[in-house]
Amino acid sequence: MAVRPLVGIVAAAGSGERLGASGPKAFVPCGGRPLLDWSVEALGAVCDRVVVVVPPGLEAGPDRVGGGASRSESVLAGLRSAPEAEACVIHDAARPLVTPGLIQRCVAAVERGWDGAVAAAPVTDTVKEAAEDGRVTRTLDRSCLWSVQTPQAFRAEVLRRALTVPRDELAAATDDASLVEGAGGSVTVIDAPPENIKVTRPSDLVTVQSLLLRSHSGSRVD
Ligand code: C5P
C-alpha cells in the first residue's frame, strides 16, 4: 500500500574536510553540476517533495533548511521541516550515483510493512576486528555482512521517534537505521550496487565522475 506523502531528505550539511575542497562538499562541482543536484534529481523522480539540509547560512531557496553539528541532527532538522511526511527517504548528498530505481525499491519495502529499508551491498572483503596494537582479535563471517549505504526509507513516525534521543547518541549514530533499530523498529536491507559510492576523498570524486559519465551514456545499473 502506498505510504504518502513521501518526502525525500538530502543530508548536505557536512563540511567535507577530507575532500579538501574550499567549500562544503555537497556544493563541489561534479559532472558539470553541484554534487548535491544528482541526489535531488533522483529523489525528485520518486518523492512528493525534496528537502535539502545545507550548512547554516546557505538556506536561501525553497525547501532548504540549515543543518546541525552532526549528520543525525541535520536529518532531524530536515524531518522537522516535513511534518506532513508519512514516509521519508534519507539520502546523503555525497552519493550522487543513486538512482530512482534504487530509491523506489527501498520505499516499496516500507510499503510492504517494514519500518525501514536501507540500500546495502554484500561485503566481499574478509572483515577482521583488531585491537589498538593491530593484533587481530576476530575474523567475522562475511556471509551475513552488508555494507550499508543511503538511500534509507522509513515510516516517518518511526524515524521521528527514533531521533528523540540525547544529542550524544545522535552524534554517535553513523546512519539513521541504527537509531530505528535501537528503538526496536524493523529494518531490512535492499541489495544495492557497490557503485553507489560515497564521495569522501578527492580520488572518490574522480571515480564518481567517470561512473556518472558511463551511466549517462546509457549503461547505469539499478
Ligand atoms: O561526513 P560524511 O561523508 O559521512 O557525511 C555523510 C553525509 O551527511 C554528507 O552528505 C554530508 O553532507 C551530510 N552531513 C550533514 N550534516 C552534518 C554532517 C554531515 O548533513 N553535520
Structure notes:
This protein is 32% helix and 24% strand. The chain is of the alpha/beta class and 222 residues long. The protein has one domain (6-216): Spore Coat Polysaccharide Biosynthesis Protein SpsA, Chain A (Alpha-Beta Complex), CATH 3.90.550. Helix 4 (156-162) crosses helix 6 (176-182). The chain is globular. The relative contact order is 0.18. The model has no long low-confidence stretch (mean pLDDT 95). Bound molecules: cytidine-5'-monophosphate. Cytidine-5'-monophosphate binds next to helix 2. Residues 11-14, 25-26, 53, 67-71, 74, 92-94, 198, 200 line the site of cytidine-5'-monophosphate.
Topology:
Elements: E1 6-11, E2 29-30, E3 33-34, H1 35-44, E4 49-54, E5 64-66, H2 71-80, E6 87-92, H3 100-111, E7 116-122, E8 128-130, E9 136-139, E10 146-155, H4 156-162, H5 167-172, H6 176-182, E11 187-191, H7 202-219
Parallel strand pairs: 1-4, 1-6, 4-5, 7-11
Antiparallel strand pairs: 2-3, 6-10, 7-10, 8-9
This protein binds cytidine-5'-monophosphate (C5P).
